[in-house]
Specification:
- By secondary structure, this protein is of the alpha/beta class.
- The chain has a domain of about 300 residues: Rossmann fold, CATH 3.40.50.1820.
- Helices cover about 35% and strands about 15% of the residues.
- It contains 15 helices and 15 strands.
- It has a 7-stranded parallel sheet, sandwiched between helices.
- A hairpin with a 2-residue loop joins strand 7 and strand 8.
- The longest helix has about 40 residues.
- The radius of gyration is 21 Å and the shape is globular.
- About 5% of the residues have low confidence.
- It holds the Pfam family Lip_C.
- Its main location: secreted.
- One of its GO terms (biological process) is lipid metabolic process.
Length: about 450
């Protein structure tokens, strides 16, 4: 009887989550369509975004690249809708690439490189063979910043999974992983992480990823991610050109459209036998704690790059510190309130060996509805990278490269994206601070970097 009751609760929770996400997705899509219609027939102009300091601006100022997270989109997708609330419209030195909303961090990093330098996207021969997709992707006839090199580095601002994309890209640059290019880690001048999933998130398990693979399967048979998988497979198979130009999950290199896969290919994909969800070459495996731990094992914090992280949380200790629960109903986006509560209550299965040495459930309870706060501050696992907690950003007036400066702020995961009006003046101040800090750190200072600290 008890198991039936638990099963009924889980099904109800799944249906509620699916409905909430579907409604929000339709809301975003309809908002984009309405905005396009308004601008086409009424000639309406978007309200100018935040004022950006131009005191030091000039032709030699490095560009700033804004990177979206999971289910996100870049400039040109969803019509005139802006993932970053319009901050890119004030300065022609700001770029917002579209990297596919569900593709793996590896594939996004490869896409990002060729978006900037130009050329045909090369996912790598070995990687493409292992994960069963085409080696080459789209062609960028002209790169958006073809002069990118040691002398012309770039500032990056990544939201959610976007922050980890930059870290992987920088490591690839250091490893000279792009054939025909003499790259280095110094091509990245700074990285600002907004609610970045630097160490994974327990949200991935709540939505359906397994903490421990069972019989080669990485997802629960019935979960929110399975619904997402089915919807994505059908969307890509139908392959309606104008619709995919409007929004694209980024799996074109898997050739899953009806033209190439046919009916049998669709069936195989839906059964989980082929495609990104079968091989694991998509974003969610990278966002599990074990996936991030494996990825972080090969990623460095580089001594000549500036790092700053905004860690968000919408939780607090209740009943004299005995419980971590959502702070309030008012400050959290309706879609995220249940998610904040779920993440606060999630516990690592006691029957399994700890996911890393020193893991404690209580460390991972504070969250913003999508990512745990502990994961956002700086890279922590498997080794802790040099970091410094700041209360006021004025403490960063003389930032040192090679150290992760981080600030914890009260906000949910989408507070600083999509809807500028929701965050109000806080939205303006944060982005203004980010862009000012980028401009002030436009010239590299070579310093020594402290050694990483092993996790106790």
């Amino acid at each position: 009887m008890g198991r039936l009751w638990i099963g009924a609760v889980e099904v109800a929770e799944l249906l509620l989550s699916a409905i909430v996400h579907l409604i929000y997705g339709l809301y975003i899509f309809s908002t984009a369509v309405a905005s396009d219609i308004s601008q086409t027939f009424l000639g309406a102009e978007d309200r100018l975004p935040i004022p950006i300091s131009t005191e030091n601006d000039g032709p030699l100022q490095p560009p700033i690249v804004l990177l979206h997270g999971i289910f996100g989109f870049g400039k040109g997708r969803l019509g005139g809708l802006s993932y970053f609330g319009g901050v890119e419209k004030k300065d022609d030195r700001i770029l917002v690439p579209d990297l596919g909303s569900l593709t793996s961090i590896h594939d996004r990093a490869r896409d990002l490189f060729y978006y900037l330098k130009g050329g045909r996207v090369d996912y790598g021969q070995e990687h493409s063979r292992i994960y069963g997709h085409g080696r080459f992707g789209r062609v960028y006839t002209t790169g958006h910043y073809p002069e990118w090199d040691d002398l012309h580095p770039i500032h990056f601002v990544g939201h959610s999974a976007g922050a980890q994309v930059v870290r992987v890209l920088q490591q690839m640059l250091s490893d000279k992983a792009f054939e025909g290019f003499d790259s280095s880690e110094n091509w990245v001048l700074s990285l600002t992480s907004l609610s970045g999933a630097l160490n994974g998130t327990t949200r991935s398990y709540i939505d359906g990823m397994l903490v421990e693979e069972l019989e080669g399967k990485s997802m629960k048979p019935v979960c929110l991610l399975q619904l997402c998988r089915i919807g994505t497979v059908i969307y890509d198979w139908v392959d309606i050109k104008w619709l995919k130009n409007y929004y694209n999950f980024g799996f074109d290199h898997f050739e899953g459209s009806w033209r190439k896969a046919g009916i049998l290919g669709l069936v195989d994909s839906l059964l989980g036998n082929i495609g990104p969800f079968a091989t694991g070459d998509w974003i969610l495996p990278d966002l599990t704690i074990q996936g991030s731990l494996q990825m972080n094992s090969n990623l460095k914090t580089f001594k000549n790059t500036y790092y700053f992280s905004y860690a968000t949380k919408m939780t607090g200790n209740w009943l004299r510190g005995g419980y971590t629960l959502p702070l309030s109903l008012c400050g959290i986006h309706p879609m995220l309130f249940i998610r904040v509560l779920q993440m606060s209550l999630w516990r690592y299965p006691q029957r399994l060996h700890p996911i890393y040495k020193g893991y404690r459930d209580e460390d991972w309870q504070d969250n913003d509805g999508a990512v745990n706060t502990i994961s956002m501050t700086h890279p922590r696992i498997p080794i802790e990278h040099p970091s410094r907690f700041v209360v006021d950003e004025l403490q960063c007036a003389n930032m040192k490269p090679g150290v992760w400066y981080y600030k914890i702020i009260e906000a949910d995961h989408i507070f600083y994206i999509l809807n500028r009006d929701r965050a109000g003046v806080m939205f303006d101040r944060m982005y203004e601070g980010i862009f000012d800090r980028c401009r002030k750190n436009s010239f590299r200072l070579i310093t020594a970097i402290p050694s990483p600290i092993p996790i106790a």
